[in-house]
Amino acid sequence: MDILVLYYSRHGATRRLAECIAQGVDSVAGAAARLRTVPPVAPLIETAAPPVPPEGAPYVEPQDLEQCGGLALGSPTRFGNMAAPLKHFIDSTSGQWLSGALAGKPAAVFTSTSSLHGGQETTLLSMLLPLLHHGMLIVGLPYTEADLHGTSSGGTPYGASHVASQRQGNALTEEERRLAIALGRRLATAALKLS
Length: 195
Prior knowledge:
Blueprint: E1 2-7, H1 13-26, E2 32-37, H2 62-67, E3 70-78, E4 81-82, H3 84-90, H4 94-99, E5 106-113, H5 120-133, E6 137-138, H6 147-150, E7 160-163, H7 174-194
Parallel strand pairs: 1-2, 1-3, 3-5, 5-6, 5-7
Antiparallel strand pairs: 3-4
Helix pairs in contact: 1-7
């Protein structure tokens, strides 16, 4: 079963979370992560992204959503909300909403910020709203995950997160990494149980 790990990442921190979530998905027998990203958006409508990204995951296509057994959605935080490129893509999914392509499938969210109180939880909650409209079933991180009690950086019950501070750089802490892997594992396990 394919689990779509869909993200936008500008400086690589959200991509690193996505890779850990994919690792968690791949650790569950019968599940496989499909990493995808979205193209950047530009204020000038004449500006377009190349049809294939120069590196990293390929751009998402509608059939990736339609074929997935579950979805992990990730974005850096922009003023307490998801980044415009991801929102732009989500806004284009009315066809999948009308057909119910995602209804009943599990979903999880993840984010990165440049400061500890930079809006991680509001971003995660804002990403959940369209997923709920699609009829998806939300998977979070329970406090049975010991790292939620000990993290001094990212990690919330709403989803995996990372603090990419100037001091620390983009490297994930061990707690952030383990929580992202745990979220991928929970998502894949839920998808298999629901199928």
